[in-house]
Design brief:
The chain is of the alpha+beta class. The chain contains twelve helices and eight strands. The chain has helices at residues 2-35, 41-45, 49-68, 75-112, 116-147, 150-154, 156-161, 163-173, 175-190, 232-235, 262-274, 307-328, and strands at 198-201, 204-211, 215-220, 225-229, 239-240, 248-256, 279-291, 296-304.
């Protein structure tokens, strides 16, 4: 009877104690979250319930399993398995706690500061810090798991002896990876590019969607994703339209006939912008910027509060001005002249139009 009750008490007691302690901790965090609505930390920490339960149960079983006197022939293997579960769940819990702290810090900062550029910069930094912490915890947990095996402990001396050669080989093999790693940290704390910035890379316009320690993802206007190594942004020039403020100035070019009514176009542009919600009202203008033998170049200048709105204003101005010219001033659109040459001012006709002499057949 004792052989049955002993393991039942040890295992059942560990599970019951885990459930009770877990419920008490969750109840305390729930009450704290209700009292402090301005601090999202307690609510985020409640996401750690599952790893906390696993850690607590694994620790209780690891400490009391020998008292159960169950499967004595395999006690060493079971103890090692419980140790591995305890190490892995502890790493899981640490990562969850770090993520909760990082997200809580970012949420409080975002509610206090209203500057979108500063909020995006902090978001980029805390995201990369969270990834670094996760990588460090994973490496430490893996090393701790490996050290639970006697063979790995015996090989420690030889591994340390060859650490210099292995370090050189690993450094050469991982040169690009380490370069991207340091480039990611440089981007995060150098404030070169942030999550949410509007950038132009390799001729593609898009928004920075994700920044990791090794790569950066840009979401283009047509919902494509461009994935590039972060070292690209530290070694090559790129356009960051969100740097120094989100306000932008855009241009729309028209190639028109020389007879186009520029003054009427300027008045029409003002009417179009007055009814355009995306125009921020800062500036506008229309001017002739270039000419060719057959056309002239007219530039319309508009402003908007960000890159999305400037795109909307530009396409609206282009569409409505062309439609207005087509309906009211079609002669202003560019065309190819196919008429005969006009006589010169002195009354002489061009040579190719001179009539032939009836006698000689010559002009």
């Amino acid at each position: 009877m004792e052989n049955v009750l002993r393991p039942l008490i040890v295992i059942g007691g560990s599970v019951v104690l885990t459930v009770v302690v877990g419920w008490l901790v969750d109840f305390a965090m729930r009450r704290a979250d209700e009292r402090h609505h301005e601090t999202p930390l307690w609510g985020l920490l409640r996401r750690c319930r599952v790893p906390f339960h696993v850690v607590l149960c694994a620790a209780l079983l690891r400490g009391s399993y020998d008292k159960a006197e169950l499967a004595r022939d395999h006690s060493a293997a079971i103890g090692r398995i419980l140790s591995l579960v305890l190490i892995g769940s502890t790493a899981w819990l640490v990562v969850r706690i770090a993520a909760a702290i990082v997200e809580s810090t970012y949420a409080r900062y975002a509610t206090i500061h209203r500057d979108p550029a500063r909020v995006r910069r902090v978001r980029t930094q805390v995201t990369l810090i969270q990834r670094v912490v996760t990588a460090v915890v994973a490496v430490v947990a893996t090393a701790a798991m490996l050290l639970t095996f006697p063979a790995m402990q015996a090989a420690g001396t030889s591994l340390l002896a060859s650490a210099g050669i292995l370090g050189i080989v690993a450094g050469v093999a991982a040169q690009s990876t380490l370069g991207n790693l340091f480039a990611g940290l440089q981007i995060a704390f150098g404030d070169m590019v942030r999550i949410g910035d509007t950038v132009v890379v390799e001729g593609e316009w898009g928004t920075v969607e994700e920044i990791t320690l090794t790569f950066l993802a840009v979401r283009t206007w047509d919902e494509r994703r461009i994935t590039m190594p972060v070292s690209y942004f530290t070694s090559r020039p790129f356009e960051n339209w969100s740097r120094g403020g989100a306000q932008m100035t855009g241009t729309v070019f028209f190639h028109l006939d020389h007879s186009a009514p520029v003054h009427k176009m300027r008045a029409k542009l003002k009417d179009i912008l007055r009814d355009c919600a995306a125009w921020d009202g800062r500036d506008w203008g229309l001017a002739v910027t270039d000419t060719t033998p057959s056309t002239m170049q007219v530039r319309a200048l508009v402003t908007a509060k960000d890159a999305d709105d400037i795109w909307t204003v530009r396409v609206l101005v282009r569409e409505q001005l062309i439609q207005w010219l087509t309906e009211h001033h079609p002669y202003a659109l560019p065309r190819v002249n196919t008429a005969s040459a006009e006589p010169s001012p002195n009354g002489h006709r061009p040579l190719h139009l001179a009539p032939k002499s009836p006698r000689t057949g010559r002009g």
